[in-house]
Amino acid sequence: MIWLSNKVAFLINWNSPGNKNPKHEILNSKQFQNLKIQMTETAHFYQLTKEKLFGLFKTSDQGLSEVDAKKRLDQNGVNQLTAKKKVSAFALYLSQFKNTLTLILIAASILVLFIYYFGERDPSDLIEAGLILAIVFMITLLGFIQEYKAEKAIESLKKLLSYKTKVLRDGTEREVDVADLVTGDIVIIEEGSKTPADMRLLEAYSLMINEASLTGESVPVSKFTDLISGNTQIADQKNMLFAGTSVTSGRGIGLVVATGDGTEIGKIAKNVAEVEKEATPIQKKLSRIGKIIGLVVLAISLVVFVFIVFFAEDFTSQPILQRIIHSFIASVALAVAAIPEGLPAVVTISLAFGTQRMLKKNVLVRKLNSVETLGSTDTICSDKTGTLTKGEMTVRKIYFGGKLIEVTGAGYVTKGEFLFGDKKIGVKEVAPLLECGFFCNNAKLEDKNILGDPTEAALLVSSAKAGINPKGKRVLEIPFSSERKMMSVVVEKNDKLVIYTKGAVEEVLNHSNISPTEKRKILAVNEKLAGEALRGLAFAFKEISKSEFVKQKNSSRGSGQKKLESGLTFLGIQAMIDPPRTEVAPLIKSCQESGIRVVMITGDHIDTARAVAREIGITGEGLTGLELEKMNDSEFIKTVENISIYARVNPNTKMRIISALKKKGHIVAMTGDGVNDAPALKKSDIGIAMGITGTDVAKESADMVLLDDKFSTIVASVEEGRGIFHNIRKFVTYLLSCNIGEVMLVFVSVMLFQKLPLSATMLLWINIVTDGIPAIALGVDPAEKNILSHKPAVFQKNIITRRLWVEMIVFGVLLTIACIGIFLIDLPFGLERARGAVFTAIVFFELVGLFLIRDDYKVSFFSNPWLLISVFVTVIIQLMIVYIPVIASLFEIKAVDYLDWIYIMAASGLIWLIFKSAENILDQFSSMRMDA
Questions:
Q1: Cα–Cα distance between 456 and 437 in angstroms, integer?
Q2: Strands (E), 92-233
Q3: How far is the C-alpha of 335 from the C-alpha of 114, rounded, in Å?
Q4: Least crowded by CB within 10 Å, which of 1, 135, 464, 489?
Q5: Are 270 and 241 in contact, with CB atoms under 8 Å apart?
Q6: Residue 16: which pLDDT band, with cuts at 50, 70 and 90?
Q7: pLDDT higher at 331 or 850
Q8: Residues 675, 19: Cα–Cα separation, whole Å
Q9: Secondary structure string (H, E, C) spanning 439-483
Q10: What is the pLDDT of residue 23?
Q11: What residues are paired with 394 via a beta bridge?
């Protein structure tokens, strides 16, 4: 092979006695620090000549000496990323307590223990405190299990550098651990290897690099050694190699210019580590509810405290200190009654159920609170390659025989047709062109699995669609190079030798026998294809005699190669693109109809991005990363609403896009698969990583992972997230309305009768069991039909809107009136009977409230069998408490009389009728409807 002979010649030259490169220089500490300063100040290595680079890094063609390499390693550190300080499991568990409702529960348990110590030492107080603490332990444990191992992005980045590489030391090629590389080392890379550090290319032979994980570029990039002027982005630095990228073909030799944290991956790692993950929308909403509950409980407790100290007749004869103690105990008891102990647990369990449902839809949720966030999302910033597109290059059009022919099918599926207009054409008409693409190819197609360059894979697929699988033996390859922009092979078939050539259209035309007029026509066709973001490759061939082939092969490399590739017969063009997924366009339309804006962010060229966006229905202006960098933050924020296509972006650019959208008040979901996506994934409200094509770094930085890499799965997740938001709203409304009713009942009873119709144990039992079981079942309610038709603003509101607060207060008033009525009727028969009747009545009234709340949503009565079962279980449990004497004695109540059942059923019916009748009045009273 020609590249092998080049390698041998190059190494012989390096090791020759006549080499006049400078001697190795051992640097002292001061010189080394000066070198580091120089390297920092000289960031644009792609602009420097080989000689300047050697002078800057104090190295030579023979590489560093082992002594110098060791000294640099000791002074600069290993070629690894600085490990982020690990969060211990205990610290992660403690972080679960950063929740207002959880802190309120802990405070409640402490207060109950205070009551036990200073009060009558009732054992039920200890049980109550224990139950509350058990709830706290359960919800924090669930959150801890879900989020364990969530912060390991840096460790995943380090995996990219854990292998050996070939390096020249003292003029001799040897293998060393990547961790031992230092700046100034000369590294040899070959097909199939990973780039071990950031390097400036010194030699390149048909070198193609896959930089998708770093830049988002969908096709391998051809690398060369020429100088590049001006300031360019990473994707355009064609004479640079970056750590973590991989060699798809060819070989090269490079000078290490950055290692460890100094590499582009290292900079990304630093960004990932520095990005603080903000609270999710559900965390913010629940925190707000917790603060409201805390303030209301404090206010009510203060009123009760003052009332008992100064106005309660039963305590006025006692000393002031004794009155204060009794008042404090009573107000604390009321405060505990006001706290919805089951709410944090129900939220956690509901989100956990949501993660299981989403897993069935190919979404792996890594962070529990992110489940609901997708429902609030109004902007999806999506990566193009592999998410909106198939991530597989596909020939879409071919130009042959003066005809522009369309090729159907997408990706690496070998089924498709060739159409001219609406008419299907025979494969024989295009066979010569496809056969050239088949032979001039190093990729392999095995059972729909592609090995090799994606561009060459697309040519194999297009020939397979025509059933072309010709036989022939390759006898020579002239590999592609960035200077020639062509590749040629000589194939022996049917005792004939044929030269097949592919490459850039203009270059192939220059080597073909073609008239100037025809050349202009073909170039115009190629320009038209480029306008559609199709990448055109030209093909040509010629037959050659065996004697002529031997003659040219044995001549000097340059002249022989030129003669072999001259006088070609031009065949045509195959134009390809990474096509959009077929299901994406209707999904984009569905998102837009529901008020969700889709923004495309890609490392590809702007023309390609615009063409794909046009095809899938993304509208808006386009902007390149370079153009964005020229804008300051205020300028960009003013225009960010109009831009829907971003091309040639780098990691910092993505961060700016996310930040600008969030500053405009948007809830942003970000998709990504590469190392370059990690900071933006963490910065966004919800980061979504690709499970198939995604790097470990992306997955570890994301909140959820798509197991099938499909945009349709994101849309399904939005639907699920919206359903979860509705369910959270349902059970939060249910639990709070129950607690409001209970607090009103206790408050009014204390004020009017100075008697409690419900004990603290009863209140805790209601909050945790008889309210908690149906509330958990509400968490698995199905999403209402056409939930995607709602605008995102519906799901960005507070969980409890003004309308819902009014509803809950109205329900609390009705519940209080009904319970006090039953309490007064039964009080002459004894406190235990009255409490038993009220205890049972409040459970049934709250179940009525449950179905009143659910009636506001478009879900059928029988759509959630678990809810019906939970209601049935709640009723059975309540009947057991009331009618089994041993259990009833624990609650200090007596069995409910049949007359009480009549009162309870009648009051339940009245509450339903009054509440439904009041809905029109509530609509007029409240300016914020739930479904507005």
A1: 8
A2: 164-169, 172-177, 186-190, 198-210, 221-222
A3: 13
A4: 1
A5: no
A6: very low
A7: 850
A8: 41
A9: HCCCCEEECCEEECCHHHHHHHHHHHHCCCCCCCEEEEEECCCCC
A10: 42
A11: 577
